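Notes for week 9. Today we move from apo structures to complexes. The key idea is that a small molecule is not decoration. When we ask for a structure prediction with pyridoxal-5'-phosphate present, the ligand SMILES becomes part of the input, just like the chain. The input block below holds both the sequence and the ligand string. Read it once before you look at the output, and try to guess where the molecule might sit.
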Amino acid sequence: MAEQVSQLSFAHSSQFHTASAEKLAARLLALAPKSMRPGGRVYFCSGGSEANETAIKLARQYFIERGQPKRFRVVSRRQSYHGSTLGAMAMSGNVARREPYQPLLPEWGHIDPCFCLHCPLGLHFPECNLACGEELEALLRDDRENSIAAFIFEPVVGATLGAAVPPDGYVQRIAEICRSQDALLIADEVMTGMGRTGKPFAVDHWNVVPDMITFGKGAASGYAPLGGVIVGPRVVEAFERGSGAFQHGFTYQNHPVSMAAGNAVLDVLEKQELFARVPTASRELFAALEPLKQHRHIGDVRGLGLLAGIEFVKDKDTGAPFPREENIAGKIFEAAMEQGVLTYPTQGCVDGVSGDHILLAPPFIITAEECHITARAIAAAMEKVFSAT
Ligand SMILES: Cc1ncc(COP(=O)(O)O)c(C=O)c1O
C-alpha cells in the first residue's frame, strides 16, 4: 500500500486506468466460478453496501439494454441483510435494521428465508420439497407487470440468522428458477466470500453460477475499504451490445490504495495457502464447539467453514427463545469480550424479533488451541450470563 501511494495515490477512473485494479480484477475473476471468467468483469467500490447498490443498478440497466425498461425490482428474502444504504436496506429483510427507515424503503418483494430450524412455513425438510424456494417461482410467475429484474440472496445467511446454511438442493433450485424465468441471480457474498466458508465463494459448495457475486469485508481484510461486484458474461454482453457504458460511479471506486491492499491480501492468502486451511480450521472449530451443544441454553451450533453461529434458547426441549428484553446475545457478547473473545451478537433469528445468537468468524490462521480458547470463553460467558438469569 505504501509503495502504491508513492507511485500513484489516486486517479479518477472516469479518465484513467489503474494497473493494480486491473491486476486485482483478473485475480478475483480467476477465483470466481469457471463460467463467470471468460467475458466476466469486476466493478470495484468501497464496501459491501456500495457493492449491492451497484448490483441493483447493474440489474436495472441490464434490462434497459435488453429493451425491457419495465424491469427494475430486485426481490430478496425476509431475515436477510444486504447493507445499510437505502437500496441495499430495501432488499434486506432484517426487521430491526429496517424498522426506523421503513418509510424510505420501497417494497420490491420478499420471500421467506430458507431456515429449517425455524421454518417460517412450519414444514420439515425434505418433505417440504423446498417450499420456501418455490415462493420465488410463484413471485416471478405472478409478476404480471413483468417488473422483477433479479433475486439477491446470502448463500449462508450471516448476521441475521447466525450462519444458517440451506439444505442441499435449495441454492440449485433458486438458480434454476431464476434461469427459467429470465431473472438475474445475485449472490451476496460480502460475508461468505473470499474463502470464508471453505471455498472461494459459498455458491461453489452447490456448483451454482450466479450472474453477479457481490463481495467486500475479507477482500482487503480491513486494511482498506474495498468491495465490488463480479459480473458474469451474460450481463457484460448485454452492456457491450447495448449502450456500452454503465451509468454509475463513485469517486473512490478502484482506489489505488484499496487495490494494493486487495492484491496484498490475495498474495498472503495464496502464498500461505490459507484458502486450503479453512476446511481444517473449520473442523477444529466445530469440534471445539461440540461440547457446548449439551448446554441447557444452547439450541444450535451451525455454520460452514469459518463462519459459525451459536443460538441460545430459554427452553432446550421446546426451542423457545428468551424474551427479547433480556438481550441474551448482547450479554453473551459482553461476557465473552471479558474473556478476550470477540463475537457478533444479534437478535431476531427466530421470527425477526426474538431469538438470540452470536456469530464467530475467526481468522483463517486460527489454531486448534485458539479454537479451544474460543469455546472455553463462550462456556465461561454462558456461565456468567445464565447463572444471573
Ligand atoms: C451479507 C452482507 N451484505 C452486505 C453487507 C454490507 O457491507 P458493508 O458493511 O461493507 O457496507 C454486509 C455487512 O455486514 C453483509 O453481511
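Residues 47-49, 52, 81-83, 154, 158-159, 188, 190-191, 216, 227 surround pyridoxal-5'-phosphate (CB under 6 Å).
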